[in-house]
């Protein structure tokens, strides 16, 4: 099996090399510069997003939900594909502007024009590369992101379920705390074996007017919370009208208690990243009558955005080419500054458009495609001006 995969890898590598060698010297020259800057952009922008958002999420999961550090790291790695989908368009713009700007500063574009090579011909390998990255972004979003998101959710559920089960310990207590640091529940077990608490006592003070004490022969975690067997429940509650305290006792052979389910629900809320384009269509049709209109609208925006976001790669490449061509008298590199400005403008339009879509001020299709179309129109105007009128 491994040898077959290895042979296919070498065959693919050989095929790509053959196709690359068939390209003209000009195409190879531009693509070589473009690829190096694009790779740098992927690394830089992915690191920035990780440092600002994902790392904060990692710390929250460790401190708030009690997730072990190694599992939290695995969850962060599983979120990497969806971050890369976001950074591909940004990196494409960065690579386009920096590469064209470098050619312009070295007067190579002027030399190309003098040799009869037009701006349109220079832009051809850039557009081809942007088109390939558009398909790569789409396939990552369709094939890798959904499965990675589901695996991340499963890890979160597993961690929350197992965080109260310290195996092979004797006579120990475990505290379950509220977000403000106050005590919510106290677990005591005589001993733990094979992830099962034996002779367990739980004091639950999560409700302001009730105190519940559960004593059971053993207890384990489940998808629904805790499963206790052969026990008794003592409930002390306060009557709000009379102010009297009520004491109830009930015996059970087996009981499911939803301790900790709130934590799981906070962490594993249903996300559109769990579905690819076609599965999300089916999901919307199946639950159209069950979900709130606002949620359906958000799902529809995400559905159209699964196509619009990869196409943004082409739109940003289109606007990056004319912005990278500097006037003859400008002798400094403006590429990085232009990249930052365009990225900022794009995400402002995107955030505004999606917000208007979620509030029903825009149709979901318009909300998802408005940023892409806006950038593409401006890019076409600038490209036409640089390529055909100057």
Provide structural commentary.
The structure is a single chain. The chain has 390 residues and is α+β, with helices and mostly antiparallel strands. It contains eleven helices and six strands. It has a six-stranded antiparallel sheet, with no helix packed on it. Strand 1 (170-177) and strand 2 form a beta hairpin. The radius of gyration is 29 Å and the shape is elongated. The two termini are 57 Å apart. Residues 261-268 have low confidence and may be disordered.
Tell me the layout of helices and strands.
Layout: H1 2-22, H2 25-64, H3 69-78, H4 80-105, H5 108-114, H6 119-162, E1 170-177, E2 183-193, E3 196-204, E4 210-222, E5 225-238, E6 245-257, H7 261-267, H8 277-286, H9 293-324, H10 335-358, H11 364-388
Antiparallel strand pairs: 1-2, 2-3, 3-4, 4-5, 5-6
Helix pairs in contact: 2-3, 2-4, 2-6, 3-6, 4-6, 4-9, 4-10, 6-9, 8-9, 9-10, 9-11, 10-11
Q: DSSP helix count?
A: 11
Radius of gyration: 29 Å
Distance between the termini: 57 Å
Shape: elongated
Low-pLDDT residue spans: 261-268
Query: What is the N-to-C order of secondary-structure elements (H for helix, E for strand)?
Result: HHHHHHEEEEEEHHHHH
- Major β-sheet annotation: 6 strands, antiparallel
Task: Tell me how many strands there are.
Answer: 6
Largest sheet, spatial ordering of strands: 1-2-3-4-5-6
Measured as a percent range, the helix fraction is 55-70%
Number of domains: 2
Mean pLDDT equals 79
Tell me the fraction of residues in β-strands, as a range: 15-25%
Characteristics:
6-stranded antiparallel sheet; 2 domains; 11 helices; 6 strands; 390 residues; elongated; alpha+beta
């Amino acid at each position: 099996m491994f040898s077959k995969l290895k042979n296919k890898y070498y065959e693919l590598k050989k095929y790509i090399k053959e196709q690359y060698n068939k390209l003209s010297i000009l195409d190879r020259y531009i693509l070589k510069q473009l690829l190096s800057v694009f790779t740098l952009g992927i690394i830089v922008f992915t690191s920035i997003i990780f440092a600002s958002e994902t790392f904060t999420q990692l710390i929250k999961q460790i401190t708030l939900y009690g997730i072990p550090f190694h599992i939290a790291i695995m969850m962060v790695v599983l979120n990497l594909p969806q971050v890369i989908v976001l950074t591909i368009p940004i990196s494409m713009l960065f690579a386009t502007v920096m590469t064209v700007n470098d050619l312009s500063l070295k007067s190579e574009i002027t030399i190309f024009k003098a040799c009869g090579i037009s701006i349109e011909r220079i832009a051809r390998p850039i557009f081809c590369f942007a088109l390939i990255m558009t398909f790569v972004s789409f396939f990552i979003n369709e094939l890798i992101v959904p499965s990675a998101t589901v695996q991340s959710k499963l890890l979160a559920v597993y961690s929350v379920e197992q965080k109260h089960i310290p195996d092979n310990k004797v006579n120990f207590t475990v505290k379950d705390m509220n977000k403000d640091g106050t005590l919510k529940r106290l677990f005591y077990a005589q001993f733990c074996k094979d992830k099962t608490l034996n002779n367990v006592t739980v004091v639950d003070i999560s409700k302001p007017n009730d105190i519940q004490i559960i004593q059971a022969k053993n207890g384990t975690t489940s998808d629904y919370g805790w499963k206790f067997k052969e026990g008794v429940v003592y409930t002390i509650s306060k009557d709000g009208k009379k102010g009297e305290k009520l004491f109830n006792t009930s015996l059970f052979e087996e009981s499911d208690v939803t301790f900790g389910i709130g934590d799981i629900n906070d962490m594993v809320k249903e996300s559109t990243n769990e579905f690819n384009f076609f599965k999300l269509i089916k999901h919307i049709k199946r639950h159209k009558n069950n979900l709130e209109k606002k949620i359906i609208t958000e799902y529809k925006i995400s559905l159209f955005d699964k196509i619009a976001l990869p196409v943004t790669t082409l739109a940003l490449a289109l606007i990056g080419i004319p912005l990278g061509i500097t006037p003859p008298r400008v002798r400094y590199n403006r590429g990085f500054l232009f990249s930052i400005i365009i990225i900022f403008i794009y995400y402002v339009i995107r955030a505004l458009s999606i917000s208007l879509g979620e509030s029903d001020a825009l149709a979901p299709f318009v909300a998802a495609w408005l940023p892409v179309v806006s950038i593409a129109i401006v890019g076409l105007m600038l490209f036409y001006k640089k390529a055909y009128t100057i």
